[in-house]
Amino acid sequence: MAAVRKTNQAQRETSVEALMQAALRLFVDNGFDQTSVDRIAEAAGLSKGAVYFYFDSKEALLHGLLDQGENVIVDRMVKTIAGAGPKASDKIALFVNTQAELGVTDPDRVLLLILSSLEFHNKDGAINQRLRAIYARMYAILEDVIELGKTQGVFRGDLPTPVQAAIVMAGHDGTFLEWYRRKDSLDGPELVRALRAATLAGLATDKSEKSNKRRAK
Amino acid sequence: MAAVRKTNQAQRETSVEALMQAALRLFVDNGFDQTSVDRIAEAAGLSKGAVYFYFDSKEALLHGLLDQGENVIVDRMVKTIAGAGPKASDKIALFVNTQAELGVTDPDRVLLLILSSLEFHNKDGAINQRLRAIYARMYAILEDVIELGKTQGVFRGDLPTPVQAAIVMAGHDGTFLEWYRRKDSLDGPELVRALRAATLAGLATDKSEKSNKRRAK
DNA sequence: TCTAACATACTGACTGTTCAGTATGTCAAG
DNA sequence: CTTGACATACTGAACAGTCAGTATGTTAGA
């Protein structure tokens, strides 16, 4: 305590940084609603007053974190996909790999996006709108790649693109969550290999469409 | 109000039923923590005291709902898979179809399982233990089928079974969530078709393993 | 001195849980 | 068939705790 005080501007930066880091950690671990402002302040080595000095509300804190997340994650994804070769299958493989890399490099930021969209999914308000906008950007990227693969004839064209995109996205989010929860019992690199294989195979044009007889019921 | 009072036993049944249905609905819509006991009671047309007359605690209510869910979901899955033909690919297809059917027939019960396991995933306590036990049963079924497919030579053997099972499970849970949130823009049957195709293709032995060059970095 | 950057103390609202009291159902004795 | 003793199914209020947000005090930098 009573750390040496820096210049005001430097102090401002480090305090804001400390608060956001603490909030990110706690939001991811306990959820937004289950995290009190007091605990955020305490974890950042500050008081509740400091939180409200820098942020208008608890939601504003989450808002700031989501902004950061969008910059880190979506922008990276846009650039990576755009910079890849022209083949749709390469772009999809890159989508999986980039998600995985981000998950290893900056798991909390990825988790915050996924968990928040679950926690807020049936609440109205600015946070939900923000999350929807972020996911919309991700879906736009994905759907473009899938469409590309269809015109290239490497992805099956008998299913709606939004449906395929939803499965890819949900599969990746869900798998990442599962990996995060069971890091000990799940091997990361193997998981990425398997996920990439499943994603590509699931999108690819059939090489043996046969057992299409009605099953179950 | 002042409804005609039934016999004690009948009254007990209808009240308990009303409370559990209300709780299921609200837990799924708003989450466990965000649902107050008052709102449950109100939705059931009773008072808060009535909740505590029939249940020891709010958690006990969730406990009861999870018990019901396990009976409906896991038992059904066990029987369906066991009753299928000997081919692992058929059993996997049946796994997807059964999940989908359950999702259509009784979405709330499926959702409660998925959402609760997310909400409680890093909390200790009886609820989390219960959820882990339920999921463990599901994973056991899945892993058995995958192992079977490997011995039958139809599923790829170069990946750990738990990894493959995690992807299948996460993909299904995630896809179901996405479908539930976007019923309007996602066609259910097509989603099931696509998911079944992706699951089977992702597990199947490679027919063209080639582009295994290291990508990204 | 003035003000940015906090800390402290507090408010009002909401929460899960408990409980005394009441209205109604049940059932055996007379 | 009535009645009294009891069990069941609640209600309404209160309690202790927690929380987001606010108002105000304090101190160090400019």
Would you write up a description of this structure?
2 copies of one chain form a homodimer. With about 220 residues, chain A is an all-alpha fold. Chain A contains 9 helices and no strands. In chain A, helix 4 crosses helix 6. The C terminus of chain A is likely disordered. Chain A binds a DNA duplex (30 and 30 nucleotides) through helix 1 and helix 3.
Q: How is the topology of this model organized?
A:
The structure is a homodimer.
Chain A: H1 8-30, H2 37-43, H3 48-54, H4 58-83, H5 88-105, H6 107-119, H7 126-151, H8 161-181, H9 188-203
Helix pairs in contact in A: 1-2, 1-4, 1-6, 2-3, 4-5, 4-6, 4-7, 5-6, 5-7, 5-9, 7-8, 8-9
Chain A binds a DNA duplex (30 and 30 nucleotides) through helix 1 and helix 3.
